[in-house]
Specification:
Elements (H helix, E strand, L loop, with lengths): L18 E3 L6 E3 L57 E2 L8 E2 L28 E7 L2 E6 L8 E10 L2 E12 L3 H19 L6 H18 L5 E10 L2 E7 L3 E6 L2 E4 L9 H9 L4 E4 L2 E4 L9 E2 L12 E6 L4 E7 L1 H4 L4 H12 L7 H14 L6 E7 L5
Antiparallel strand pairs: 1-2, 3-4, 5-6, 6-18, 7-8, 8-9, 9-10, 9-15, 10-16, 11-12, 11-17, 13-14, 17-18
Helix pairs in contact: 1-2, 5-6
Protein name: protein-serine/threonine phosphatase
EC number: 3.1.3.16
Catalytic activity: O-phospho-L-seryl-[protein] + H2O = L-seryl-[protein] + phosphate; O-phospho-L-threonyl-[protein] + H2O = L-threonyl-[protein] + phosphate
Length: 391
Amino acid sequence: MSCSVAVANSPVFSPSRVISTSLFCNKASILSSSPDSLSLSLTHLKPSPPPSSSPSSSSPSSPFRLRLQKPPTGLSNSSFSSSTSNPVSISGSGASPTILKRKRPARLDIPVAALSFGVPATPATDTLAEEREEYGYSVYCKRGRREAMEDRYSASVAIHGDSKQALFGVFDGHGGAMAAEFAAENLNKNIIDEVMRRDEDETETAVKHGYLKTDLDFLNKESRGGSCCVTALIRRGNLFVSNAGDCRAVVCRAGTAEALTSDHRPCREDEKERIEAEGGYVDIYHGVWRIQGSLAVSRGIGDRHFKKWVTAEPETNMLKIEAEHEFLILASDGLWEKVSNQEAVDIARPLCMGTDRPEPMLACRKLADLSASRGSYDDISVMLIQLGRYM
């Protein structure tokens, strides 16, 4: 049995196209809106016989009658000859119709990228995409209701004696997995290259240039789609958390959840003002605020068709790692749309702190499963970093 799914609240939504996804095949197709693609049989309908008192009944060969609605009194027939796409306004008797101009351009029709890029599609019953546990971090990725996983992650850990440096990232792709795949493979290297060639007090600038270079390199490939990103750089006991998009970082400070990033969405007032200053507009569609009526995030890697308004420049927050900073959660919005910051910390903390055998991987699984049980259709990626290992 197959199932057609229209994803209306995904980051990229093109109203003129609907993705039809078969749960047991690896192909995605665009449903045609052509009149030839739909047919309706009326042979099963039983027509009512025309009243005998009506002298002007329909032709005997046609059992159906069509009654045309009369135009409202006082309006000439010319008022109804205008194109339906141009509404008319009539003021006073005998006034000429006034054509109302469109205030905003039409929503952008974004080409749909292949959904099976990167990770091959797995059977619908196999919800586990990947899990990994290494020194100081655990990550668990759970595929959503799409045919292929679009989330990616990266991790780089370097230990030289007492010196510990690490860089982690979670990437949430949209319009395909190409941008997330590219960011996972290149962003860490670009950030580290920028960090190594700058002074220590320029780390935030180095991270920004790493993001911008990754974005430029991806755009030069002329690939479609985009990706939200969140990264955590640990260097010399300092934590630099950056994001572009709605992936989020939350730190547990002695049991209290503190968000270290702020989601970049068009509904944010400063993001809305920035977009409108560049000539774009922000509108609500199907209950979600979107750029040009289509894109639901305002920063990220890629998004060629929206690059005038969507920047890859991240926001960065820095803090000194102290004993009270117990662990850090990096996750895609598949988690945060269904689980609050404090709830995530409350679930993960008993499994990570105060036990002889910490189970951070189990914490990651529990968080992803909780979001899925609450109806999340999106891919869910959860990374938990034990900050005590890097002090």
